[in-house]
Design goal:
By secondary structure, the chain is mainly alpha-helical. The protein has 6 helices and 3 strands, in the order H-E-H-H-E-E-H-H-H. The chain has helices at 6-18, 23-29, 37-49, 70-86, 90-98, 104-122; strands spanning 21-22, 53-58, 61-66. It has a 3-stranded antiparallel beta sheet with strand order 1-3-2. Strand 2 and strand 3 (61-66) form a beta hairpin. It is elongated.
Amino acid sequence: MNELTKAEENIMQVLWKLKKGFLKDIVEALPDPKPAYPTVSTVIRVMVKKKFVGHNTYGKINEYYPLIKKEDYFKNYFKGMVSNFFDNSWQGFATFFSNSDLTVDELQAIKAEIDKELKKKNE
């Protein structure tokens, strides 16, 4: 799976939230300063070619919708990040966060989630 550029990711965030929308809806939902309609249209066309976005055509107007779930994209992106920045070591990734500025409460919440997953996998 390809990765999204920052501009594409911004548009995908809007589409994931809207579920589907016309160009006007997408531009309106983007944060200020809003990009120009032609810019958004061009980025969406690229995303259609990359198969991240699909569309239904009504006359000359397209209604766009995501072809990939946010969770699926995030999982793939995250695996790539662990591979690229932590030499494919999830332990290295965990160590990075344990040495970060997380509070004790945040670390305990992460530990609780890990413990819950371990319990599920051991059943």
